[in-house]
Amino acid sequence: MAAANRDAFWAPSSKVNPDLARERESATFDVRELTHIIDGSPDRTKRRKELENLLYSEPVFRDVGRLSMERDEIYEQGVLKSIKLFEWSRKYKWDDDDFELASRLANHDISMSLQHAMFIPAIERLASDTQKAKWLPRALHYEMIGTYAQTELGHGTNLMELETTATFDPERNEFIMNSPTVTSMKWWPGALGKSSNTAIVLAQLIVKGKNHGLHPFLVPLRSMEDHTPLPGISVGDIGPKMALNCIDNGFLIMKNVRIPRENMFMKNAEVTRDGRFISRGVDKANYATMVLVRVKITRWAFESLSDGATTAVRYSVVRRQSSLKPGERELQVLDYQSQQYKVLPALAASYAFLMTNRSLHRLYDSVHADIMAGNTKLLAELHCQSSALKAYMSEVVVQLLELCRQACGGHGYLASSGIGLLCASSAPLVTVEGENSVLYQQAARYLMKQVAKAVVGDPVASGFQYLLTQSSSDRPDIRIQNLADCGNLDTLLQVYQRMAFSVVTGAARKLQMAIESGVEQHVAWNNNMVSLIQAARFYALHGIAKEAGYFLATPTLTPDQFELVRAAELQAMAKVRHDAVPLVDAFDLHDICLHSALGCYDGNVYERLYALAQTSSLNKTQVHPAYYKHIRGLVKDGQKQLRQQSKL
Ligand SMILES: CCCCCCCCCCCCC/C=C/C(=O)SCCNC(=O)CCNC(=O)[C@H](O)C(C)(C)COP(=O)(O)OP(=O)(O)OC[C@H]1O[C@@H](n2cnc3c(N)ncnc32)[C@H](O)[C@@H]1OP(=O)(O)O
Ligand SMILES: Cc1cc2nc3c(=O)[nH]c(=O)nc-3n(C[C@H](O)[C@H](O)[C@H](O)COP(=O)(O)OP(=O)(O)OC[C@H]3O[C@@H](n4cnc5c(N)ncnc54)[C@H](O)[C@@H]3O)c2cc1C
């Protein structure tokens, strides 16, 4: 498609699909007002619009041609987007919120995303004041393009077993960085393959033959002159992925790479000139960057899910298919209860996740400020909450996005629907920054400690008071006698707290019994891992319906009460269905950001599907070269054989 057509592609049309228009006319609330709440304030809405105008005035951010690009072009486009954002950030002095918002408007589809997602935050959190003064300007002015290189080919979860070494050489006052085995090469870090010239490398610190555990080191990778790899450095791209192919996730092998002693991040520990190791912060303070990214991932979860819900809801009111009664007009598919059951949980969860991210971010900001002031008292609770919510929200996003895709029928399987790419781009959220089953266990570990405190009447962390308030009676005693009760949020909170209390204390009891029976702690833990992970997982009515077992197998709800909840859930869906379009319109996603022929604001789905089909590289010629190379011969042979047969 020519550049001009590409620009026309996303221009909003004055002709709006009538079904979609009618849905908007019947909104029961002020959409703009809700948009302000979603953005955070009217000012943030205004700011978002300004940034949309800035980004979408640049062809590279409108990339309609993206659907048929080769990886090198996708990577280069991602680099160009990165550079644009970096230049604007420097020119307009963006703060973190502006940068994060601009990155979101670009769908995080930027090759050097780690610069602001991890590299700069790691320097801010792990470097001494002297090191920050030296390195932050170089990172903020983009002389240093960096990545966060922790995962290795052989280990991602188990940090204790990472093999990269940093050995102190007192003779030359340097560290010698090495990748001693094939499994020790760094593998996966974003922008490591071709973009970065510097890496924060997590390595086992060896001083005078003693291993002092995992510490971060600043390692130059490529020449600042011509970007060639420095001596001892072997670096490259690890190959195409399911999505996110603008990012050059890379490998790094270091052979006797020497860095100055001052390149060890020294906020939490240091090696003195005479080779003494000094530890300063809490043991896990060096894990601070991972906690921050887990909190960011809960925001990305909201963004991905609101994209998917917008596409699926708008398409489900435009698409008419089949009739409930022969001869009647075909139904908008969103009027099928089964379609509501597929699509509306994603809409409901989007709003729930937006609020959850805000609450978690407030906790993070407060605890981070404490930690920077030397008070790590709430670090463990933050670690628990960020681990559990990152795991749960990413898991739910992946599940609900797939349901949104399925709800769009065959067209949902087209790249031009945008929803397949969304599923594939969001898929790694269950893995990055800590694989979910591992993070659930981190949360479960903290929960078990809270139970142990509750049992002896000691104070428990603020987020776990329900462990003290719920009774351990084995009979349900929650007041749910009619549909109205099911809509009472305090009642629903009590339902969840009662269930959580039962599941968490149940897991603790099983673990305790196993240990008391003589089974070793780590074996007991593994044998009860599913119960422990469940204890670390749980959103309102749909959550109860979906997890029926846990609400019925514990003294939480009677079967009759559960049936009331199910009925209330379907009643709520019918109610939400009425406002489904205004509720997704309130996310106010620009068509370029949503990038979907099915979810576009004007609902002209069929015209856009056809227009995008024209961009298929196969349509460059009426007869594809493959005909002349292969198909013609086959047809001619067939004709020849038929002629011969007819003569027989
Ligand atoms: C609109 C579309 C949007 C789409 C967007 C898509 C973008 C997708 C791409 C994004 C990519 C982002 C970049 C990704 C980066 C990465 O992945 S970086 C690498 C991440 N790696 C990990 O997270 C590793 C996970 N493993 C661990 O964290 C640890 O190994 C462990 C599992 C936690 C185990 O720790 P360990 O020290 O080995 O032992 P434990 O005994 O379990 O822990 C000891 C105590 O320390 C406490 N603790 C552990 N971690 C932390 C922490 N982070 N903070 C604070 N405290 C921590 C733990 O609770 C124990 O405490 P006690 O119980 O008191 O002993
Ligand atoms: C798109 C993407 C971007 C990434 N970016 C970066 C980056 O910038 N920097 C970086 O350092 N890393 C990065 N990573 C790596 C990521 O952090 C790791 O993939 C992640 O930590 C999981 O480690 P692993 O892949 O080695 O899986 P493993 O740790 O080998 O786990 C494999 C599977 O084993 C199971 N498992 C493992 N341990 C346990 C356990 N204790 N209990 C129960 N089950 C377990 C789980 O099912 C897990 O999925 C990225 C990965 C992806 C996919």
Keywords:
single chain, 648 residues, alpha+beta, globular, binds ligand LEDWP2DD, binds flavin-adenine dinucleotide
Set out the fold topology.
Elements: H1 3-10, H2 18-25, H3 31-39, H4 42-55, H5 71-92, H6 96-105, H7 114-126, H8 129-140, E1 146-149, E2 165-169, E3 174-178, E4 186-187, E5 198-207, E6 210-220, E7 233-237, E8 250-254, E9 257-260, E10 269-271, E11 277-279, H9 288-318, H10 337-372, H11 379-406, H12 419-426, H13 436-455, H14 466-469, H15 483-486, H16 489-516, H17 521-527, H18 529-536, H19 540-546, H20 548-552, H21 559-578, H22 580-585, H23 591-594, H24 605-613, H25 625-647
Parallel strand pairs: 1-5, 2-5
Antiparallel strand pairs: 2-3, 3-9, 4-8, 5-6, 7-8, 10-11
Helix pairs in contact: 3-4, 4-6, 7-8, 7-9, 9-10, 9-11, 9-12, 10-11, 10-21, 11-12, 11-13, 13-16, 13-18, 16-18, 19-21
Bound molecules: ligand LEDWP2DD and flavin-adenine dinucleotide.
In a nutshell, what does this entry contain?
The protein is an alpha+beta fold and 648 residues long.
Description:
It is a single chain. Helices cover 53% and strands 9% of the residues. Strand 2 (165-169) and strand 3 form a beta hairpin. By secondary structure, it is α+β, with helices and mostly antiparallel strands. The longest helix has 36 residues, at 337-372. Helix 13 (436-455) crosses helix 16 and helix 19 (540-546) packs across helix 21 (559-578). Strands 1, 2, 3, 5, 6 and 9 form a 6-stranded mixed beta sheet that branches. The protein has 25 helices and 11 strands. It is globular and about 90 Å long. Bound molecules: ligand LEDWP2DD and flavin-adenine dinucleotide. Residues 114, 148-151, 155-157, 188-190, 244, 249, 428, 431-432, 434-435, 437-438 line the site of flavin-adenine dinucleotide (FAD). Flavin-adenine dinucleotide binds next to strand 1 and helix 13. It is found in: Peroxisome. InterPro entries: ACOX_C_alpha1 (IPR055060), Acyl-CoA_ox_N (IPR029320), Acyl-CoA_Oxase/DH_mid-dom_sf (IPR046373), Acyl-CoA_oxidase (IPR012258), Acyl-CoA_oxidase_C (IPR002655), AcylCo_DH-like_C (IPR036250), AcylCoA_DH/ox_N_sf (IPR037069), AcylCoA_DH/oxidase_NM_dom_sf (IPR009100). Residues 536-635 form the Acyl-CoA oxidase C-terminal domain. FAD binds at residues 151, 190. Keywords: FAD, Fatty acid metabolism, Flavoprotein, Lipid metabolism, Oxidoreductase, Peroxisome.
